[in-house]
Amino acid sequence: MAARVTRWIFFFALLIIARFSIVPTQAQSTYWMTTDGVSWADPRIQITIPLSPTVLQADLPEAMAIWNHATTWFESTFYPTDKKFYSFVSTPNTTTITIQAVDLQTLQSYCLTSGGISVCTSYTVNSVNGYVLNAHVEILANDLTTTNPTHLFLVVAALGTLVGLVEYPAPCPFQDFMCASNPTVYPSTLDLYAARLLAQGNRATTTTLPANIPYQQAPTLPVPEFQGASALLALIGVSSTLILTRLSKTKYPKKHR
């Protein structure tokens, strides 16, 4: 009996030790990031999709959709009554924002010294009201290839810099899509909160996530409803037609003259 009690005491002691040993790894209580402290007067940020390279042409609409979906989710979840937030709109022939792929020699020199190697964004700001007049985004062309598994991440991060977010210097304090070493393409609640403040005209260069908003990634883009079912129905339809044709030929063979 005494041996059994001793085993139970030892077992509970191990549980307590294990419990306390994992608490520090989950004890991240402050999530923060820096911004460029800039904001756009029009929350609908209009972008022209470049014709080249093809990877950027394909990635940019998807990156815009990721941002818009994440922002809508964040606002409807945490600020359902406040409607002023950034969204990206595809508008042909706009010259306010230029996004292009460049080689390493062309990439703006100050980005190389500030730690941003693949994405660089510069602004022209109205000196009177402080709003952005135009912006120029450069993405390293060597990273915009189909062989690079993180090429979409770079484009999503480029849109993050366009709204004023700043890439974390290495090593990152926690996982976030504004970390160059993090392959995730979905903004976190911290990224979305910082973008929200900038959209509201709050141009603080340091943003801390409020305690009432959990740090998490935005949900992924939903798969269009019935997309898989439609493809399956189409396949079933084609297969059924082929089977019926085959059966009719077997039942009613052609007459030879």
Instruction: Give the SSE string.
Output: HEEHEEHEEHHEH
Largest sheet: 3 strands, mixed
* CATH topology annotation: Collagenase (Catalytic Domain)
**Poorly predicted ranges:** 5-27, 225-245, 249-257
CATH architecture verdict: 3-Layer(aba) Sandwich
- The secondary-structure class comes to alpha/beta
Number of domains: 1
Helices, by number, come to 6
- Report the sheet-strand fraction: 5-15%
Got a strand count?
7
Determine the mean pLDDT: 78
CATH level 4 superfamily: Collagenase (Catalytic Domain)
Radius of gyration: 26 Å
| Distance, first to last CA | 99 Å
Task: Please estimate the helix content.
Answer: 25-40%
- The strand line-up of the biggest sheet is 4-6-5
State the name of the first-level CATH class.
Answer: Alpha Beta
Which overall shape is indicated by the principal axes computed on the Cα atoms?
Answer: globular
